[in-house]
Amino acid sequence: MTTLQEKIQLATTFLQNKGVKDVEFGLILGSGLGELGDEVEDAIAIPYAEIPHFPVSTVEGHAGQLVYGKLSGRPVLAMQGRFHYYEGYSLEDVTFPVRVMKAIGCHSVIVTNAAGGVNEAFTPGDLMLITDQINYTGVNPLIGPNDAAMGPRFADMSHAYDLDYLTTAREVAVSLNLALKEGVYMGFSGPTYETPAEIKMVRLVGGDAVGMSTVPEVIVANHAGLKVLGISCITNLAAGMQANLNHAEVVETTQRVKETFKTYLKETIKAL
Ligand code: HPA
């Protein structure tokens, strides 16, 4: 049987043979936010299906490829489309790209997502800097034997989102006159949206936004010693705060704010 280490190595070698090298940032682009990958210069696009041991994404609005090249002059490896636990992937699959980002030499990952706003001060279309997260998925990608070569048994999550990156991200927002929100991202497994009662709970326990991704990738990034910056696009108000929820609205909102999102991400990458 191929071990996880061997799978990571096979995928990494494959990407290196495609010309991927000296990458600084791994980028995970969430639902409707994949267009940032189209702005990568001198781009090499590699479909997930070609990469050994890479899962293939199924959700609408996700292209399913890695894009390597420069964004704001910095070498990035961007995921257009990510893997969700609710799709039926194991958490090892969901977080496999993060392991590959580490193996290929990234020092940081930038995670983005579409999220429901729980904080009453949020409006659909807001961008939210993720200051911390609550893992409410009921699972953890690090459950199982720990390979000490990949990280510690008990990973420290005290600064899951890098403090210096938070400072820089705030400064960039000010310089762009962007009313950046910030808050705690609470991760659910999905695929159902939350109930109004669950959203009341989220607010009581300190969550500002909810979503179905990000939490496993950020846990593995911390385990691997990668620095993390996270940005949510608040696509809707969470259950009970508006009439109904649907995926079409999520996509519509990301489309509406995509130019702001792209500009903000590019300027932030430049400044990190
Ligand atoms: N809940 C969970 N995930 C989401 C939401 C939501 O309201 N909006 C976008 N992704």
Automatic annotation (TrEMBL):
Spell out the InterPro entries in the cross-references: Nucleoside_phosphorylase_d (IPR000845), Nucleoside_phosphorylase_sf (IPR035994), Pur_Nuc_Pase_Ino/Guo-sp (IPR011270), Purine_phosphorylase (IPR011268), Purine_phosphorylase-2_CS (IPR018099)
Q: Name one GO molecular function term.
A: purine-nucleoside phosphorylase activity
According to its UniProt entry, the protein's GO biological process terms are: nucleoside metabolic process
Question: Where on this chain does phosphate bind?
Answer: S31, H62, R82, F83, H84, A114, S213
- Reactions it catalyzes: a purine 2'-deoxy-D-ribonucleoside + phosphate = a purine nucleobase + 2-deoxy-alpha-D-ribose 1-phosphate
Q: Which chain positions lie within coiled-coil regions?
A: none
Which residue positions does the secretion signal occupy? none
- Record-linked SUPFAM superfamilies: Purine and uridine phosphorylases
Q: In which pathway does it act?
A: Purine metabolism; purine nucleoside salvage
Task: List the GO cellular component terms.
Answer: cytoplasm
Occurrences of domain Nucleoside phosphorylase (ranges): 25-269
Official protein name in the record: Purine nucleoside phosphorylase
What is this organism's lineage?
Answer: Bacteria, Bacillati, Bacillota, Bacilli, Lactobacillales
